[in-house]
Amino acid sequence: MRSLKPLDEETIVKSVSKTGRVLIAHEAPITGGFGGELAAVIAGSEAFDRLDAPIRRLAGLNTPIPYNRNLEAAAVPQTKDIIAAARALAKEGR
């Protein structure tokens, strides 16, 4: 995605319809993060019926993001976490 506002819902729906899977990854805490809004857009669209697996979200912990680099790395998803979640999602569903 290029931007969150304006949100390109048409492109999101086309992508979901094409792949049948969704992994939403962001650094913000999972509660109240923009990923929930993206999931709602997908769930309310025609793409929902084309999903082969549940919508998955990977986000930061429900804590303030620490300033210390090591603690920050533990609080927000890292590249290895996103890769692992994507691989798990690829094996899930139909």
From TrEMBL:
Q: Which residues form the Transketolase C-terminal domain?
A: 1-82
Stretches of the chain forming a coiled coil according to its record: none
Q: InterPro entries, alphabetically?
A: Transketo_C/PFOR_II, Transketolase_C
Q: Name one GO molecular function term.
A: branched-chain 2-oxo acid dehydrogenase activity
Enzyme Commission number(s) from the entry: 1.2.4.4
Keyword Glycoprotein appears in the UniProt entry: no
Keywords from the UniProt entry: Oxidoreductase, Thiamine pyrophosphate
| Cofactor or coenzyme needed | thiamine diphosphate
Q: What is this protein called?
A: 2-oxoisovalerate dehydrogenase subunit beta
Which gene name belongs to this protein?
bkdA2_2
